[in-house]
Specification:
Bound molecules: 2-acetamido-2-deoxy-beta-D-glucopyranose, zinc ion
Family: Belongs to the alpha-carbonic anhydrase family.
Function: Reversible hydration of carbon dioxide.
Shape: globular
InterPro entries: CA_dom, CA_dom_sf, Carbonic_anhydrase_a-class, Carbonic_anhydrase_a-class_CS
EC number: 4.2.1.1
Keywords: Lyase, Metal-binding, Signal, Zinc
Oligomer: single chain
CATH topology: Carbonic Anhydrase II
Number of helices: 7
Distance between the termini: 92 Å
Number of domains: 1
Length: about 300
């Protein structure tokens, strides 16, 4: 390559956004694109019952989440992403839950460890299900409109047992650890298996994408119920590599200030809080003692 053609190549690459979109790293968050530094409505944030205001939202209506759909998995160098290989009119949809209108699922991706923290706790894994407002037609159209994008965040909690439903997906992710950009098919994906059974409890706030360009106006829903995952399963994510063949040990963005934003929370009526669990244990113990003392 001559010097002139090299310069042309660099100029063309920058113009096409290749350099700016692929060169960011999680070690270098202070140098992410300007909106990430200057935005006042950024994500992720620290969530707690202390900062949130309790609010009554209608429950979510989900359609198509229980269907078996073909998916395509990819290591994109920053995360493991799962795209549904189906046409627009077959996409799973959400409405309700305080959202106005219908949103369609674009894709899923994972962060290890979690980006949002709850009561100062950082979970081993956080799943993002990225939706766009159906009337915009695509994520690309929706991304710069306030309320155009709605993300569901699901936290995973360590458990001694593997999550069986996770296995087919993890088998493929393991194969993708060292190959950035290579698509691999997963024939049978049921998105509902990656949502907690009880969706009634969640935090809601307005924030941003957590990767450059950190676009704002994103409606966040972070479910308070979690899904169990084993340490071995989490390890498969932690061994993913970047396009420079560096191990991507962590891919979460640092916490961002609320800057006066309101955080709402809906408490699930069937959520067993620590307090009620403790109270019911005492009750159970009392019953056992009474039962046995009568023998
Ligand atoms: C996506 O679906 C199309 C049509 O069914 C199929 O031809 C293609 O191979 C699929 N892509 C992958 C990566 O599996
Ligand atoms: Zn994400």
């Amino acid at each position: 390559m001559t010097a002139a053609s090299l310069i042309c190549f660099i100029v063309a690459s920058v113009a096409a956004g290749i350099v700016t979109t692929s060169s960011w790293t999680y070690q270098d968050q202070k140098h992410w694109s300007p909106q990430c530094q200057e935005g006042r409505l950024q994500s992720p944030v620290a969530l707690s019952l202390g900062v949130a205001k309790e609010k009554e939202f209608h429950h979510f209506r989900l359609s198509g989440y229980g269907r078996v759909v073909p998916a395509v998995l990819k290591n994109n160098g920053h995360s493991a992403e799962v795209r549904l290989n189906i046409s627009q009119n077959e996409r799973p949809e959400i409405s309700g839950g305080g959202l106005s209108g219908i949103y369609q699922l674009d894709h899923l991706h994972f962060h290890w460890q979690s980006e949002h923290v709850m009561e100062d706790y950082r979970f081993p894994l956080e799943l993002h299900l990225v939706h766009y407002a159906k009337d915009t037609g695509s994520l690309a159209n929706a991304i710069n409109l306030p309320g155009g994008v709605a993300v569901f965040a699901v936290m995973f909690e360590l458990s001694p047992d593997d999550d069986e439903e996770f296995e087919p997906l993890l088998t493929i992710i393991e194969k993708l650890q060292t190959s950035v950009g290579t698509p691999m098919a997963l024939q049978h994906l049921v998105v509902k298996h990656f949502l907690p059974r009880d969706l009634a409890g969640f935090y809601r706030y307005e924030g941003s994408l957590t990767t450059p360009d950190c676009n704002e106006g994103i409606l966040w829903t972070i479910f308070t119920n979690t899904i169990p995952i084993s340490a071995n399963q989490v390890k498969i994510f932690e061994e993913m590599q970047t396009d420079h063949h560096e191990v991507l040990r962590k891919n979460y963005r640092s916490l961002q200030p609320l800057n006066g934003r309101e955080v709402s929370v809906k408490i699930s009526p069937i959520r067993s809080s620590a307090k009620t669990t403790a109270a019911s244990s005492v009750l159970l113990l009392t019953i056992i003692i009474l039962t046995f003392s009568n023998v």
